[in-house]
Amino acid sequence: MKRIIALLIALVSVVDCGAALKKIESDIPYQPQSSDEYILERCKLDIYAPENKPVKRLPVIVWFHGGGITAGNKSDFPKLIKELDIIFVTANYRLSPRIKAATAIEDAAAAVAWTFENIEKFGGDKDKIYIGGHSAGAYLSGMVGFNPDFLKKYKMSNLDIAGLLLVSGQATSHFQVRKDMGDKRAQYAPRIDENAILWHVENKLPPVCLILGDRRIEFPERVEENEFLAAVLKKMNTSPYVEFHELQGFNHGDVALAAPQLMKKFIERKK
């Protein structure tokens, strides 16, 4: 019951903005110069924009789906996002086992770079581009935002990103990344190395919003490691603004349903 009430509150809060997004572009290749068949198959994105053309450029969210870097699709996103007053970009990326899972981070960076280069054509404000995702998508977004090396090849800085919207992402090295590297330890055995968001906390970072479910029913350790990440960021002061939210009554899967309300507030904070 508490979860239903929370969802209703979220719905009212988000819809209050009066926006309604519709898909305006489908399956745009964001690495069109590649000759790799799998890149051309998977590395595509969709763009959603308000039905009524806005009078000014809008904030942008670039979104990456979950699925453990082994499954998922760009159509997998919390539908309340379509009620936000934004331009919304949702991207596919390559999946393990056809690639090593860490390679998906490079795809995420390429999608972000494409968005910075092209989004003004679709009414987006490239000074207000946020990146985020759910679960594996949050991990990919976090790695792009925390490790500046991924955007350097595009002559970009991670500080060009307006903010990170990370919904139930892994702050330690992602379990599929570890598996593909030959790590045979248990899925929830933590590892902090260069493939962990936590490894990169000393870098200068954009604002960060961490949204988690209820630790009693979330993925094991997921809330605690993000709580630790938030504490470290606040102590080190490498990000100008950090939010941490634990949503009671929501598990790992359905926490994304309530996330758009918090994402909306996070974006509006910077207006």
Condensed summary:
With 271 residues, the protein is α/β, with parallel strands linked by helices. The chain contains eight helices and eight strands. The protein has helices at 2-15, 37-42, 103-118, 136-146, 149-152, 175-180, 222-236, 255-269; strands spanning 21-29, 44-50, 58-64, 87-91, 124-134, 163-167, 208-212, 242-246.
Give the ordered list of helices and strands. Answer: HEHEEEHEHHEHEHEH
CATH-scheme architecture:
3-Layer(aba) Sandwich
Strand order, sheet with most strands: 1-2-4-3-5-6-7-8
Largest sheet: 8 strands, mixed
On the 0 to 100 scale, the average pLDDT is: 94
User: Please, how many domains?
Assistant: 1
Rg = 17 Å
Gross morphology is globular
Count of DSSP-assigned helices: 8
Please name the CATH topology.
Rossmann fold
Name of the CATH superfamily: Alpha/Beta hydrolase fold, catalytic domain
